[in-house]
Amino acid sequence: MKKLLTLVFAVALAFSLSSVSFAQDAPAMDKDKKEMKKDEKAEKKAAKKKMKKEKKSDMKKDEMKKDDQPK
């Protein structure tokens, strides 16, 4: 009976230690995903800024054309 109890204890201890070591890999994957999301957000933000600048420059060109027209 003692041998069986010792074996069960050893298996439980080994399982708990292995689960801790496997659990350490999971946050590393989350960090990669978070970094990718941040990069995607930064790219979208940069694209939005570029579009706004282009829109402003187009509006300025239109205003200049209106000013050049004879009255």
Helical content, roughly?
over 70%
| First-last Cα distance | 107 Å
Q: Note poorly predicted spans.
A: none
Mass-distribution shape:
rod-shaped
Structural class based on helices, strands and sheet pairing: mainly alpha
Mean pLDDT: 79
Number of strands: 0
Strand content: under 5%
Largest sheet report: none
Topology:
Blueprint: H1 2-23, H2 25-68
What does this structure look like?
The protein has one domain. The N and C termini lie far apart (107 Å). 93% of the residues lie in helices and 0% in strands. The longest helix has 44 residues, at 25-68. The protein is mostly helical.
What are the salient characteristics of this protein?
mainly alpha, 71 residues
Could you give a quick summary of the protein structure above?
The chain contains two helices and no strands.
